Amino acid sequence: MAGDSSSDDIGGARIIEIYRRYGGKIEVMPKVPVSGVEDFAIWYTPGVAEASIRINKDPDESFELTSRWNMVAIVTDATRVLGLGKLLPEAAYPVMEGKALIFKLFGGVDAVPIVHRRREPGAFASLVKDLEPSFGGVNLEDIESPKCFYLLDFLRMELEIPVWHDDQQGTAAASLAGLINAFKIVGKNLRESRIVLLGAGAANIALYRFLKAYGVNPRNIVVVDSKGVLHPEREDMDRLLFSNRYKYEIALETEGGGLAPGSSLEEALRGADALVAASRPGPGVVKKEWIRGMSRDPIVFALANPTPEIWPWEARDAGARVVATGRSDLPNQVNNALVFPGVFRGALDVRSRAITDGMAIAAAEEIARYTEEEIGIEEDRILPPITDWQVHYRVAAAVAWAASREKVARKPRTYAEELENARAIIETTRRKYGALLSAGLIERLV
């Protein structure tokens, strides 16, 4: 999750003691009344046969007669976990559990961690396809690039349920929401501005796609990877065609942003209106003097964790007007937890067959709109905190309405209908959780 801060503030030994005490972050609880053995005639045999017969005739009935409608698989092969890199699948389980916790608390979504050893793309895709009948949606997580792009594209085509890769779409949607408000603050038109994306991994390749769909001219975007500007005359273009067609296509579409082949990041930033860096931990990855070469009132998003590519105060000293990071202890945190709980809430509630780019952009626009309308935007406040519950209801409503307009919803809803529905589901989750805490059935941290 973008924005996770280091555990150093608490201490590693303390973290392990807490994890050992709780034995995990989530559990499964019954949601139906059972007061005696006779109730099992309804919930299990023989009554359950009626539901099975109905679903066998129409599989879509599984969304109405079982928990599938609210169930999401969080699937990873542990090849790129947080800032930790490639891990054993078992070592990724705590991260997936944390994701499931956020899904439930902020979206009312039941999510199940699935960590596996099928790291070859075809085997990974086959596994997810085989799991489809059990779930209403799939959240891909912590998968190395460029495999993550191929998997998302393939599974979006093959599955009849929403598929989402949070490191791509979630971070990109949160970034787009922040950019929308940042450009309002500096008084510039996002669609007419020059934007540099530092890093060509999951988040920025998805952000490039969203910016293009939002109306930004691809030739006003410069994408820089570890070898320089993506440019049609770059010497490794032939290799990229086969190894990473996403970078290859960006190079062709952007034409290197009008720069000469081999241009540096410093040259790319000259006159740029915004920099979105999602590359490697700093500081020092982006220099103050490079920020000084940007346009009037530049926008700088330095999203690497745990340390941004340039510290916010250094960027401000160099003239940046709006600065964002991925950290929760600094202003303007770009956090994908603002996005995915509401996106899945809305997609699940309309029984969507997909999460389209249009739905993701609708989520970004709604987050930006909510911040401006309900909180007020300022240089140090372009996005709401993830604990602002109202934003999740509104994201769900925007996504459900977008899915309905785009004809991917099995059960279309208006914005107003989903706003009421999402609020009811999430508030019920909060009341249940609050009751368990109050009763001491969940031990409080001390």
From the structure above, extract its key features:
446 residues; Rossmann fold; 3 domains; 47% helix
What does this structure look like?
This protein has 446 residues and is an alpha/beta fold. It has three domains: 24-161, Rossmann fold, CATH 3.40.50; 170-325, Rossmann fold (3-Layer(aba) Sandwich); 336-438, Rossmann fold (3-Layer(aba) Sandwich), CATH 3.40.50.720. It has 18 helices and ten strands. It has helices at residues 12-22, 40-43, 48-57, 62-65, 89-107, 121-131, 147-158, 166-186, 202-214, 237-243, 245-254, 265-269, 288-292, 312-317, 340-349, 357-375, 389-405, 415-438; strands at 71-76, 110-115, 137-140, 163-165, 195-198, 221-225, 228-229, 274-277, 299-302, 322-325. The strands form two sheets. Strands 7-6-5-8-9-10 form a six-stranded mixed sheet. A four-stranded parallel sheet has the order 2-1-3-4, with helices on both faces. Strand 8, helix 13 (288-292) and strand 9 (299-302) form a beta-alpha-beta unit. Helix 8 packs across helix 16, helix 9 (202-214) packs across helix 16 and helix 15 crosses helix 17. The protein is globular.
